[in-house]
Amino acid sequence: MLICVRDNGIGVPTTHQQTIFRVFERLNGGERPGTGMGLAICRRIVERHGGRIWLESEPGRGAASTSRWSARASEQIDPDGDSRGMIRRSLFWRIPP
User: Fold this and answer.
1) d(Cα 76, Cα 97) in Å, to the nearest integer?
2) Given this model, what pLDDT does residue 96 score?
3) Cystine design at 57: which of 9, 63, 78, 89 (Cβ 3.0–4.6 Å)?
């Protein structure tokens, strides 16, 4: 199963797309609110369920965080136990300017 969360924020340069999954890592130096823990927590949850998480982004055009969950995790989420195909759910969050 794939879950993709997109936003229309400031984006993340390619050189920092792995860095932001570390605890307390923030790219904006405190200019915007946040603790730098969100994506680190997400990574731990996804990896403990046998999945992986990654980021796709362009500076100034927002970002998309995608996680791929293992079949085991999909079966736990899907009440019908039907994990034959990938389920893609996409959320879009608008960040006020």
Assistant:
1) 38
2) 52
3) 63
